[in-house]
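Quick start: what a row looks like.
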Amino acid sequence: GGAIVVDYAHTPDALATVLTALRPHARGRLLALFGCGGDRDPGKRPMMGAIASRGADVVIVTDDNPRSEDPAAIRAAILAAAPGALEIADRAEAIRAGIAALGPDDALLVAGKGHETGQIIGERTLPFSDAEVARAALQEAA
C-alpha cells in the first residue's frame, strides 16, 4: 500500500498544515482519519471536519479521547461539516479500515493522538497507540 503518517495534529491549524504537507506525497488519494477530544473546545469540531473535507480525498471520522462526552455527539459535530465522510467509532477499527483502503500511491494520515499511548474514555485511560495499531494492521494485511 501507500504511506502511513501518525501525527499529533489535533487543532484546525495543525490538521490543515499536515494535510498540505502530505498532499505532494500522495500521488493517488490522500486519506485523513481523525476525531476530536471530549470536554475540549467544541467549536473546532466542524472546523476540522471542513478542513479534512477540503484537504483529503477520503475522510474517516473516529473517536479520539471522548472523556466524559458522548462520542457519537462529538463525531456528529465533525460529520456535519464533512459531507461524504465515513464514520467508524472504534479507533482501531477505523485505522484498520484506512489501511485496507490504501492504494499503492495513496497516503493515510492518522491524526489527533500522535505519541499518546492511551485513550481517555470516561474516567479511564485505556492503553492505545495509533502507531502500534497501524503496525499490527499492516502485519495482518501482509
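That is the whole record. The domain at 3-141 is CATH 3.90.190.20 (Protein-Tyrosine Phosphatase; Chain A). The mean pLDDT is 97.
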